Amino acid sequence: MSDRILLAIETSCDDTGVAIIKNGNILANVISTQTVHEQYGGVVPELASRDHQRNIVPAVTQAFKLANIEKNQLSAVAYTRGPGLLGSLLVGASFAKALALGLQVPIIEVNHMEAHILAHFIDEPRPLFPFLCLTVSGGHTQIVLVKDFFEMEVVGATQDDAVGEAFDKAAKMLEIPYPGGPLLDKIALAGDHTKYSFPEVDMQGLNYSFSGIKTSFLYFLRDQKKINPDFITENLPDICASMQACLVEILLKKLRRAAKEFGIKEVAIAGGVSANSWLRLKLQEEAVKYRWNIYIPAFEYCTDNAAMIAIAAHYKFVHGKFGSQKASPLPRWSLE
Q1: How many domains, the chain?
Q2: Which of 117, 258, 280, 336 is the most exposed place for a label (fewest CB within 10 A)?
Q3: Considering the domain boundaries, does residue 325 fall inside one?
Q4: Are residues 236 and 309 in the same domain?
Q5: Are strands 107-111 and 76-82 parallel, antiparallel or unpaired?
Q6: Residue 73, CA distances (Å) to 4, 18, 104 in order
Q7: What is the mean pLDDT of residues 25-46?
Q8: 40-64: per-residue pLDDT in tens?
Q9: Is 328 within the bounds of a domain?
Q10: 254 and 181 in one domain?
């Protein structure tokens, strides 16, 4: 049997990712991070797509070099079809299709959120089916019942904002520079997670809502600054830690409910927010309390990366799930 070598491209938002996988083993995982958005306090879609165009050829070249692989050795080319920013997705899709067409190899379409979940199969230990996966990022917050590699059911989801957006908006209110969420996490390390509390909206079932807590946090800061104009400066670590604790507890409350409802002990987290140190710590505590087997991805596979696209494509190749040159990017591509 010949080697199965795939090149994977990820351009769903503002990171240009390229990975090469051989028989299920990652040989290269290149990420080119865009810095142009820092001055705007958030991702500017037009600038993101332009930077992808500049970065994709050097990133692909670097990946081939790191993997010590030649183009003519590829068995297929994979790319993120969605969800994501349309302009960014178009860059990756166009490049992947052109490369696959030139090499006369199959194309593989990968769902970005599906890939976040399947990132757990890059390294040991790997979860057993069925398992629950809390997928948390700047654009998504979902509890997914994973029955098999390509049989997934969203059993709970945010009805408004994603938890990653809540982290970033809280950081912006505190005048923490972009990217706010990760910096808020670092500042919170020196704070008291029980110092302050914020009202939340408890949705029915397994769904989430984060718009209410953002509003209550805004009003909390406004009222405290009326009393003490230097409130934020003097209490920043405690404010960050308290907000972080509140957001994480909202996430885990529904995850506990889902684990009980489905009788599942295999529990995983995925997505950019899964890199949050407090979420990781509290999930480990939950695992001891409820006897869960938990799966937390390596940091390099939490944020957007092409290795997760590659592992998803690997299993798609094995199952004969190939794409079409005629397929268009799907900015709102549902996991189901």
Answers
A1: 2
A2: 336
A3: no
A4: no
A5: parallel
A6: 9, 16, 11
A7: 86
A8: 777 888 998 999 999 999 999 999 9
A9: no
A10: yes
